[in-house]
């Protein structure tokens, strides 16, 4: 199962862009045939008709007669008869202008943003139009925009190779690596360095908050020609067939897993769901399952089920009385740890 929320978000964004273009397009072509408009806009006639139906309920606040976009149909031709002011020049209020200035400043500071020059040109135009308001004492700081991120960004812009000390939670280990940075990225509110890792001999993503130490080397970064940036359109983690596949039986309270993690298979099993997903390694999967509630049971692989059972039993033993006579009241029973025996 792919990530339905992500697909729905992209579809909604695509439809919003179409609707924003649709009204001025139709205003410039009164009486155009729906088939011709669909061809020009790159959509099917059915999709265009659905977009036109949605425009009926779009318009100005109040959303009553005289506020909503209106159209006239003559057979297969359509004409916009009221555009709800969409053709009027935009006049920003002081608050709107300041909000745009802050947003553009933040975008200009985002690591890895494409075409920064275009952002800076747009910012200059808005600041010029805003006048004295643009000089308001507003400080823009991104999430995670700390000294380490600024240090990494400066090194990447200078094109230097870096020696880093990096913590990998999936293996619970810290390693020393020499990397040749490609770019800085901001994904899901976290900063990353994408770089050629000389240790792994491959392109890797390093989370800035997991870099314990960084040294800028005097040598320039040299990225091999075979190095290619990752496609992060679906997030940082990209499951592949060579990663371990685990299957869990989950209850209603844990169905959020299917929205938060990319799943290969989701099947109904009575009131429960069978969920299969790829993981970086079984060590991470063990910690993941142990952090979930009693509504989760490991179905496969057997190795993971045994690891979870063993660690759950060890945790229960740690709560046992010195004489080992009984499990303290309130402690979980091994049968409730989400483990298939």
Automatic annotation (TrEMBL):
Signal peptide: none annotated. Keywords: Proteasome. One of its GO terms (cellular component) is proteasome complex. InterPro entries: CBASS_pafABC_assoc_protein (IPR051534), PafC-like (IPR028349), PafC_HTH (IPR043839), WCX_dom (IPR057727), WYL_dom (IPR026881). Residues 247-316 form the WCX domain. Residues 149-215 form the WYL domain. It comes from the Bacteria. Residues 322-341 are annotated as: Disordered. The keyword Cell wall biogenesis/degradation does not apply. PANTHER family: PROTEIN PAFC, PTHR34580. This is Proteasome accessory factor C. The lineage of its organism: Bacteria, Bacillati, Actinomycetota, Actinomycetes, Micromonosporales.
């Amino acid at each position: 199962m792919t990530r339905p929320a992500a697909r729905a978000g992209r579809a909604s964004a695509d439809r919003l862009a179409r609707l924003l273009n649709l009204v001025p397009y139709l205003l410039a072509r009164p009486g155009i045939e729906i088939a011709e408009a669909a061809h020009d806009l790159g959509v099917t006639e059915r999709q265009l008709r659905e977009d036109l139906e949605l425009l009926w309920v779009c318009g100005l606040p109040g959303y009553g007669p005289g506020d909503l976009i209106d159209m006239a149909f003559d057979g297969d031709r359509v004409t916009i008869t009221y555009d709800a002011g969409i053709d009027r020049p935009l006049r920003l209020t002081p608050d709107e202008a300041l909000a745009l200035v802050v947003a553009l400043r933040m975008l200009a500071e985002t690591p890895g943003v494409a075409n920064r020059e275009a952002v800076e040109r747009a910012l200059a135009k808005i600041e010029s139009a805003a006048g004295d308001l643009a000089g308001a004492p507003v400080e823009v700081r991104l999430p995670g925009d700390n000294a380490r991120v600024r240090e990494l960004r400066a090194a990447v812009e200078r094109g230097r190779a870096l020696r880093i000390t990096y913590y990998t939670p999936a293996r619970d280990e810290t390693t020393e690596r020499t990397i040749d940075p490609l770019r800085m990225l901001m994904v899901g509110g976290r900063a990353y360095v994408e770089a050629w890792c000389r240790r792994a001999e491959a392109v890797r993503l390093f989370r800035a908050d997991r870099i314990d130490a960084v040294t800028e080397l005097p040598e320039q970064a040299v990225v091999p020609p075979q190095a290619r940036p990752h496609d992060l359109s679906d997030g940082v983690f990209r499951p592949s067939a060579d990663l371990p596949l685990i299957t869990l039986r989950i209850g209603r309270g844990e169905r959020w897993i299917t929205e938060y993690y990319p799943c290969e298979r989701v099947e109904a099993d009575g009131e429960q769901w069978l969920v299969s997903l790829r993981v970086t390694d079984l060590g991470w999967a063990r910690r993941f399952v142990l952090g979930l509630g009693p509504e989760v049971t490991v179905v496969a692989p057997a190795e993971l089920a045994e690891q979870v059972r063993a660690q759950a039993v060890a945790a229960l033993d740690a709560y046992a009385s010195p004489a080992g006579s009984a499990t303290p009241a309130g402690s979980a029973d091994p049968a409730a740890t989400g483990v298939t025996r």
